[in-house]
Amino acid sequence: MRGFRLRLWQGGLFLGFLLLWEWASRTGRLDPFFFSTPSAIASRVLRWFATGEVYPHLYVTTVEMLLAFALGTLLGVALGLWLALSPGAAAVLEPYVKALNAIPRVVLAPIFTLWFGLGILSKVALGVTLVLFVAFFNTYQGVKEVPSVVLQNARLLGARRGHLLRHVYLPSAASWIFSSLRTSIGFAVIGAVVGEYLGSAAGLGYLIAQAEGVFDTTGVFAGMAVLMVFVLALDALVGMVERRLLVWRPKEREGGTA
Length: 258
Hints:
Helices cover 82% and strands 0% of the residues. The two termini are 16 Å apart. Helix 3 crosses helix 11. The protein folds into 2 domains: 1-35; 36-245, Orthogonal Bundle (MetI-like fold). The radius of gyration is 22 Å and the shape is globular. The protein is built from 11 helices and no strands. The protein is an all-alpha fold. The relative contact order is 0.12.
């Protein structure tokens, strides 16, 4: 199922869900105090954008997300390349990497708040910890997936370490890295929003926390709706960049084979 027909099914499913939700709230099947209604949520979102109330919060969350995304990705890719190309260092650091990855990131949020305060640094630090390991493991696995035959042939042709990195390892890991970017976008936003939720003066997380504090269910759902559209837009942007940079990759057919 492709193209227009797929979009039609997706849109129809979403519209049906909203209509069912609206009907259930208006007829008392769902308590509007706890679940609100899609119409009220849409009205709140439109009001936020019409009055400009949401723009400062979007700006703060965007800055935090971009910094966390960029720093986490760069560190993760660099660390993944280093350990994938240095088996000795990988063997020594493996238990430490696994131990750090096992730490629940939400637990780190209060610690980062104590270390860096309520400003942007604590949110960026939390986002980096979420993004870094996603980029690291995908890069590491992508480099490890390079066929040994390709490496042997490249070396026979005179390729040195720098040539292998540029023409073999990085192209091989590119699909894995871009796959991690699609996931990392969401994690970077989660890091920023969770940090804002726990303590901040602006941002989408702050907006949601404020609404929750006064039992404003409509405001909570409106903040979540803005957040979801925000992440989907970022994901579409990364997907567009991925398609432009990976034009050499074979396209999948409808059956799932290349």
